[in-house]
């Protein structure tokens, strides 16, 4: 007994030492704040950085002196980091972390916007918010698909393939029928087909779920790429010219400053994505189905003894996840672009990161997806104003944000206990 107790005490002592996670994060924020104050403040110009509340340069705007703003917001980030380093109560951790990150980003933007060429030294906030939601949409649907699977105990690495198959099916059948609604249904079925393969091999044949997910991603890339070259590339008018969903404006709400034009003049995918977040969150934590799903993901043996059909519930939830991800893929081809080979471009893996960053919660996944969507939109904006930052680095920005968020900001998270563990009824 004494030989095993000593290591436990030692581990506890290390966990409760000076360098707790809040202090480590505080040190990083302090360094970022000092960097922003010194570097961004020196590179910013005396020109005002304008943040307009419209889609253009005109209208109401918040103007900040470039150099002063970069220094001031850098100091805010450093102060937030210093407070965490000093050891404030844990309940302030999230607030100070948010303040520090926002301060660093605003300091960076003051530099970039003030240094932009004349006529482009403004940031249209309506476009930024709208672009953030548009770019986050496939991540939202993909992360929700991950929540449905992993809360049931099945690891869903195949989100990339589900999104891709949904995008392809929506484009193909939408083009053949000339109907966006047929395309939407076909996209959902396309995503569900990938999920069906995942469910059969992972649940019925007990294949390693991570390996199976990778294989399904490669399968989706191969199948859609082959059919694209044989059908869509040779006859795009017939096979790759799907109609698009238009924007739906909601009266009164569309006139709310900033958020109105960005959120309430969107297409069906925006409204459906936000609605699904609310519905799945409510169902997961407030209904019998949600209780059974969470019990199957945590302790399937106990759930089975209480009469829950573990395997049947896992099959249903994995298929439902495929339907959701397939619709997310259609947000590309039925709203924005024509289908191209491997057009998802790793968004499925970012959605998986959003799932982890959001701690396997629908609302958390939404916020994480918006964070990554903002990083993507910011890269696009900086390229448009002729930023001095190399374009290759701007293209990396969303993926760097993903790595930093998952590695540095999530901290200790615990997946559902039975996640990735096959269940064999005894």
UniProtKB/TrEMBL annotation:
<keyword id="KW-0472">Membrane</keyword>
<dbReference type="InterPro" id="IPR001851">
    <property type="entry name" value="ABC_transp_permease"/>
</dbReference>
<dbReference type="GO" id="GO:0005886">
    <property type="term" value="C:plasma membrane"/>
</dbReference>
<dbReference type="Pfam" id="PF02653">
    <property type="entry name" value="BPD_transp_2"/>
</dbReference>
<keyword id="KW-1003">Cell membrane</keyword>
<dbReference type="GO" id="GO:0022857">
    <property type="term" value="F:transmembrane transporter activity"/>
</dbReference>
<keyword id="KW-0812">Transmembrane</keyword>
<keyword id="KW-1133">Transmembrane helix</keyword>
<protein>
    <submittedName>
        <fullName>Nucleoside ABC transporter membrane protein</fullName>
    </submittedName>
</protein>
């Amino acid at each position: 007994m004494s030989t095993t107790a000593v290591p436990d005490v030692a581990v506890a002592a290390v966990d409760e030492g000076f360098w707790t996670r809040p202090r480590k994060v505080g040190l990083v924020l302090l360094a970022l704040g000092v960097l922003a104050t010194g570097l961004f403040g020196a590179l910013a110009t005396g020109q005002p950085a304008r943040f307009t509340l419209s889609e253009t340069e005109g209208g109401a705007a918040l103007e900040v002196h470039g150099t002063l703003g970069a220094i001031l917001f850098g100091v805010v980030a450093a102060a937030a980091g210093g407070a965490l380093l000093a050891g404030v109560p844990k309940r302030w951790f999230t607030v100070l972390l948010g303040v520090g990150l926002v301060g660093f980003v605003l300091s960076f933007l003051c530099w970039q916007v003030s240094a932009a060429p004349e006529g482009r030294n403004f940031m249209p906030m309506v476009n930024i918010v709208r672009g953030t939601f548009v770019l986050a949409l496939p991540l939202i649907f993909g992360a929700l698909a991950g929540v449905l699977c992993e809360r049931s105990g099945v690891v869903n690495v195949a989100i990339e393939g589900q999104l891709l198959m949904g995008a392809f099916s929506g484009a193909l059948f939408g083009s053949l029928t000339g109907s966006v609604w047929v395309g939407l249904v076909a996209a959902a079925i396309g995503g569900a087909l990938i999920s069906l393969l995942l469910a059969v091999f992972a649940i019925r044949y007990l294949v390693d779920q991570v390996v199976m997910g990778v294989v399904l991603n490669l399968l989706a890339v191969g199948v859609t790429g082959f059919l694209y070259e044989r059908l869509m590339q040779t006859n795009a008018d017939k096979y790759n010219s799907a109609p698009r969903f238009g924007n739906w404006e909601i009266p009164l709400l569309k006139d709310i400053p900033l958020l109105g034009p960005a959120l309430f003049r969107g297409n069906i995918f925006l409204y459906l994505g936000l609605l699904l977040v609310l519905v799945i969150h409510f169902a997961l934590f407030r209904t019998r189905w949600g209780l059974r799903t969470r019990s199957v993901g945590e302790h399937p043996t106990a759930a089975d003894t209480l009469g829950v059909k573990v395997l049947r519930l896992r099959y249903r939830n994995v298929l439902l996840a495929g339907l959701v991800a397939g619709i997310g893929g259609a947000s590309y081809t039925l709203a924005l672009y024509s289908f191209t080979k491997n057009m998802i471009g790793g968004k499925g893996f970012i959605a998986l990161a959003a799932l982890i960053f959001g701690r396997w919660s629908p609302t958390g996944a939404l916020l994480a997806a918006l964070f990554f969507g903002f990083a993507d939109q910011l890269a696009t904006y900086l390229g448009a104003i002729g930023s001095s930052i190399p374009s290759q680095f701007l293209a990396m920005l969303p993926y760097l944000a993903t790595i930093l968020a998952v590695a540095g900001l999530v901290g200790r998270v615990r997946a559902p206990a039975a996640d990735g563990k096959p269940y064999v009824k005894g």
